[in-house]
Amino acid sequence: MAKLLSCVLGPRLYKIYRERDSERAPSGVPETPTSVTAPPSSSWDTYYQPRALEKHADSILALASVFWSISYYSSPFAFFYLYRKGYLSLSKVVPFSHYAGTLLLLLAGVACLRGIGRWTNPQYRQFITILEATHRNHSAENKRQLANYNFDFKSWPVDFHWEEPSSRKESRGGPSRQGVALLRPEPLHRGTADTLLNRVKKLPCQITSYLVAHTLGRRMLYPGSVYLLQKALMPVLLQGQARLVEECNGRRAKLLACDGNEIDTMFVDRRGTAEPQGQKLVICCEGNAGFYEVGCISTPLEAGYSVLGWNHPGFAGSTGVPFPQNEANAMDVVVQFAIHRLGFQPQDIIIYAWSIGGFTATWAAMSYPDISAVILDASFDDLVPLALKVMPDSWRGLVTRTVRQHLNLNNAEQLCRYQGPVLLIRRTKDEIITTTVPEDIMSNRGNDLLLKLLQYRYPRVMAEDGLRVVRQWLEASSQLEEASIYSRWEVEEDWCLSVLRSYQAEHGPDFPWSVGEDMDADGRQQLALFLAQKHLHNFEATHCTPLPAQNFQMPWHL
């Protein structure tokens, strides 16, 4: 009876992976008392095949879940319609509650029938036995056996806790349960006394901004967090996860962030291979509709690096909602997991981000300054110009206030706090992070990210003359145009390198540098072009085109 109840309440099982020979337990090692026998690889190498009763019950419950999601998103309009028609009176609500209660009882009955179907299936009984054993005893053998299954991630045991590193427990400077530290935007109106009257005046605007951010705004910014989209992508995500586990020997793990969100991660270890890049770990930060199962993780994998992918809060197996604070909390536990559980030193970690993933990448670079390098592909400097692009002009004030207070993705500000090597990849046909049309390459916000970085690091070089010539170089939309502008200014790379190395030897590596202070305009322009060409590479593609492995290069450094 206990096993039947476990089958009723257990998670949905999607796939049973192949048993990998390299992970099988040695024959001479005795099993722990709570270990169970792993499934044979020859007979169960397939998607899990439920019995008819479980299959039909699952279909009914999945349909009910979709209807519930549609009802949730349309509930404001439904309530307004019912109120206008007078259906919200007590005489109408009571019968409706009876219908709802009856429907819930029917669905509970369907769930019990699904449990019976699972109970009659030896594959599911084997799986639930392993899952229960792993929850009782987190032994390496039990976790190894559980990794052969793909199931609802909410039932996966936690593998790493944000407080697990001993340094976190001993230090009071680490993150609290309220979250890690973020850079806060400055007040819109400086010098205004924050009196009670002013607070009351601002209250309607603040309430409106909160509602916009938590309803329409968050879903527009992170469409991958919408349940219906995830439901439609589920077959693709399952295939991508199977590829990572079976072909790349990936290891899935659940991380618990300081805000209580559970973060779904996938680690591919290349340290034992002949690839020298395998000693380096690339942490991948996906876009606003990207998942590690099918996202930018494939680029460093093809290049031979060890890779750690993770899903945003609210994406696939990760819980929560993808607001900036939750995003930073998730990134913090991912980096801690890489250092304290996977055993990589910060100097061996590279942060690679695509699109909106630039926010968490720049936060990690700012918060973990010893990280080896940062690569930002198709990213931007600030969210406000991109948000204004897609909203009516009459909403400018509301959009700016909402972004600054609730969705402040200040990538450039965070990146300027990082002292290490940076590479920006600009898509020359990008249709997402341009503020006009894709053909207008100067409206690409990646340009602004480069200019802000260079102006912070080399303020004397990026004065009026240097800024003008870099802008001309950024107007080039092809390699031929780029090379033409570069050669027109006769940039002497050896001279530029000697100037920078001399300054570094005399003043140290910390930015900002005052190099170029006593230089003529021609010298500053050459140096500005040299630095821009080293920090930004063009890729002739649209926003969502996968980056080829040969374009994944380490940033330049002295």
Automatic annotation (TrEMBL):
Membrane topology: Multi-pass membrane protein
Organism: Ursus americanus
Superkingdom per UniProt: Eukaryota
Protein name: Phosphatidylserine lipase ABHD16A
GO cellular component: endomembrane system; membrane
Major place of residence: membrane
PANTHER family (alphabetical): ALPHA/BETA HYDROLASE DOMAIN-CONTAINING PROTEIN, PHOSPHATIDYLSERINE LIPASE ABHD16A
Sample GO molecular function, one term: phospholipase activity
Key words of the record: Hydrolase, Lipid metabolism, Membrane, Transmembrane, Transmembrane helix
Gene Ontology terms: biological process: monoacylglycerol catabolic process; phosphatidylserine catabolic process; prostaglandin catabolic process
Compartments in which it is found: Membrane
Domain AB hydrolase-1: 281-407
InterPro entries documented for this protein: AB_hydrolase_1 (IPR000073), AB_hydrolase_fold (IPR029058), ABHD16_N (IPR054518)
Region Disordered, residue ranges: 24-43
Reactions the enzyme catalyzes: Hydrolyzes glycerol monoesters of long-chain fatty acids
EC class: hydrolase
EC number: 3.1.1.23
Record domain Phosphatidylserine Lipase ABHD16 N-terminal: where: 3-152
A Pfam short name: Abhydrolase_1
